[in-house]
Fold:
Amino acid sequence: MFYGKKDIPLSDVKVGELGSWLARRNKSPSAMTGAISRAFWRWQFKYVLPKKSGLVPYVHFVVGLMGIFYVINYEHIKYHKHFKHHW
Structure:
């Protein structure tokens, strides 16, 4: 039986308790992989796999591609703010 402090979700953590909350986390590579896997499957079950998911998976895909291409092209576009005419 564990008598330590009860674990609380991140959304309920106060700013002053954030350091001690982070110290209690398991930071091993397998724990990080598990957290990413749980987040992916949570997203899948919520938005992609329902019978009536609608346009949401496609919008997520398009927004994700936009973010990826922005990161890829950042070296090319980061100086555009200094141009008089941006094209």
